[in-house]
Amino acid sequence: MAWRYSRWSADHPLPLGASERAAKGQEVHAGDVLAAGTTYGTPVKVAGARRLGVAPEDLARVMRVPVGGEVERRTVIARTGRRFARAVSSPIAGRVIHQRADGDVYVAPIVGRWVVRSTLDGQVSRSDDACVTVEGSAWALQGVAAFGPDAVGEIGLGVDAPTDELHPSRIDVRLRDRILICGARATAESITRAHACGVSALVAGAAPAGGLGVVYGEAATASGATTGPEAPTVLCLIGFGSAPLPREVFLPLVAMIGARAAVHTASARLFVFVPENAGDFAQNAPSLALSDDWLSARPMAEHLSQAGMTRFASEIEAEAVTTDGGPVPMANVLAFDAPRTARN
Amino acid sequence: MTTSTELVASVEIAHEARTERVPSGSTGGPVLRVIPGDVVRVAALLGRDPKLAQAMAFGALAGGASLVGLVGTHDGRSFVERAELLRDARPDLVVVLAPHRGDASGLVDLVESLRFGCAHQDPSPHILVSADERVRDRIAAAYPDNALEALPDVRTIAGREALVARLRAVRRRAQGDVVLRDEALEAAGRAMAASAKVDVVLLDVTGGATSLIHARPDGVVLGIHERLGVGAAADRVVARAGLDRVRRWIPRAVEAPALLERVFNRARWPDAVPASVLALSLEMALAREAIAHTLADAERAGVSLEGPWAAPLLVLTGRLAELPRAAQSLLVAIDAFGPNGPALVSRAPGDTLVAAGALAARGRVATMPSAEPIAIFISMWPRRSATVRVSDASGIVEERVARGSFLLVPTTGAVEIVMPGTTVRPNAERLELGVVIDARGRPLALPPRDAERIPTLARWHSALGVLPAEAR
């Protein structure tokens, strides 16, 4: 089954330097800010407990600025005593980022700010400095790999048929903030043009691996690439090269045009936020076949018949299934929702 | 609960998406499972000794782990840069190497970076410390929420073995009673070397990993296991080697972007079969680069490969042994591995060798299945043309060998070879292909331009009859 309405969980890893986070149990919508923080420059180590003459474990008691707090230059970070006071002040403006076990502290200048947004409507189930996890219900489509940052927008259609490829000429600024459905292939030109026009994300059966390498650099592997917010977002549903979408996948997308949706890159999922009874979307999708030369993939006929042991052009003998285009090795035929990573 | 090896009725070997059982068709009785193991990400925090990085890399290769971060006390990074590096690496295991007391302060700084970057990582990384007690106490104080485990000096054999044992335990986690594929292969290599009374090299290439195992008759085994393969890890091979280095092995003109699409599709299609000649050529090209980079990583980690290169018996397993023609397995092995001396090259298709190795790894005396001898490989680099005499059941054949030549002398029945300048006379009872004489020199020089590269490759392929006729 390709489309599933279920309760999903989406992890949102945080960079270093979170200063605010959604609380556990908080209700959020896709696109809401889950966490915000700062990026740091080269930090300065400041003598803390030693200078104040307190034990390291007592430092927190005498700190005027907690770890994570912002400071100006010469702000008193910690202080002891009254008449013969001892104080630790910040040598730079920035944030107190870390207290060492020996009682010293690091202060780092702020060189940038970041926010992380939710990709799911639901409830925060985990919230700490490493990750915020949201759990919620949505229609979802599992892809094979996603590239770029998480994206939120409305579903838009970029092709007329599931076998078409997205042409750059179909993309303009009116598609800004849309998650664009691209059919069999999103070319490198359409990816860069869509990004320039403010399109939130492209969802395609396949994308050219070479083009992804150009756009995302060395970070792009067959498992995807998570990048900063400045890159485009691409979700490949079936594979690389060219892969027409099955009707069972494409028609629900047509029915959901205009619906709020999100691409969660780490899990390579498209979430669409429409009610469970919005349509009969949960239909069995046909199996997928990898072409003999591994250059593309395609949906198969609904019922496959076995061809028995077959000798292929490579002289490999393997169990095969019969198709209109000749026998295909059974190992090269997978269900749409079959696991696509090797198990351990 | 541990399965008693005496009771094991069959061995189940996991591949990318399927499992095979040995003996095939058996259904009842206790099963011993062989798995590739979880991917373990290891980061190392290092003192000043430059040999520590090498020793750590060696340990990671021997344990089949991915070394995702090396942070040194004198690497010039700031506290925040180190913390970001460690956070992004998401290590399962962190090894702290502080052999000298003078490293203590620097390593405490690194551990503070680790705590800052990974304190909330779930699950939190295991920390192994190789240091004396006083330094270990200081490090423990710097990361009080995480229990430390002591580790011997990884520059020593005992230390490396302890690290490998720990890494393998993590790779087996939550999998119950299993044997790792690399453990099984090492046990198989040890048994084969003891039985043959000569050095044996096992070369195993699967979808997700490449292993080189050198076993000596005295029981000493060197194992190098890298996450580079021809299937699920095919994209890692391209990321490491570059697309052009993979493409150069394909004996026809192929566009680089289309080749990358094939690699990415294969990486996300578990156990896909190369049904076309081009896909098969790509699999062979990936196997060559996976082996070459495994060897290069081993050399960078300070592993001497003179022993493996001189081993007289080379056994091919995994996907490498399952290529349709024996000549394909042979060509990949000699292109990428290239033994120095005469070597009998055999292949063990299927999973019977791994299954026997798994039983041997559990202490059961298992008879190793015999591998199919495919060729005797002779590497030469003669100053002037030399004569090699091959005698077999059909008589004696003399071949003049000049620099650059690459040829196969087909044989029938028992074979003996007489080479110039040596009294060694390699022999075999029977060979599937014959004697391969390689005077191409090392490293192999492939012309960069397609117009010269493709005829060169085609000549090498046709010398052994590697590809079906339409692909030449």
Summarize the structure.
The complex is a heterodimer of chains A (344) and B (472). Chain A has 344 residues and is mainly beta.
What does the model show?
The complex is a heterodimer of chains A (344) and B (472). Chain A is mostly beta strands. Chain A contains five helices and 29 strands. In chain A, the strands form seven sheets. In chain A, strands 1, 3, 12, 13, 14, 15, 17, 19, 20, 21, 22 and 23 form a twelve-stranded mixed beta sheet that branches. In chain A, strand 22 and strand 23 form a beta hairpin. In chain A, helix 3 runs parallel beside helix 4 (209-216). Chain A is elongated and about 90 Å long. The two termini of chain A are 24 Å apart. The model of chain A has no long low-confidence stretch (mean pLDDT 94). In chain B, strand 19 and strand 20 (427-428) form a beta hairpin. In chain B, helix 3 packs parallel to helix 4 and helix 10 (277-300) runs parallel beside helix 12. Chain B has helices spanning 51-63, 79-89, 104-118, 133-142, 157-171, 181-196, 234-241, 243-247, 256-267, 277-300, 306-310, 326-336, 352-361, 450-464, and strands spanning 10-14, 19-22, 31-35, 41-46, 66-72, 93-98, 126-131, 148-150, 178-180, 200-205, 210-215, 221-226, 313-318, 343-347, 372-379, 386-392, 395-401, 406-410, 415-418, 427-428, 434-438. With 472 residues, chain B is α/β, with parallel strands linked by helices. Chain B is built from 14 helices and 21 strands. The mean pLDDT of chain B is 93. Chains A and B meet through helix 4 and strand 28 of A and helix 2, helix 3, helix 7, helix 9 and helix 10 of B.
Kindly provide the radius of gyration of chain B, computed on alpha-carbon positions and rounded to a whole number of angstroms. Answer: 24 Å
User: What class would the helix/strand composition of chain A place it in?
Assistant: mainly beta
Poorly predicted runs of chain B are none
Strand content of chain B: 15-25%
Q: Count the E strands of chain B.
A: 21
Q: Assembly type of the shown chains?
A: heterodimer
Straight-line distance between termini of chain B: 54 Å
Distance between the termini of chain A: 24 Å
Please state the structural category of chain B: alpha/beta
The stretches of 5 or more residues of chain A where confidence is low (pLDDT under 50) are none
Indicate the percent of residues in helices of chain A.
under 10%
What is the global morphology of chain A?
elongated
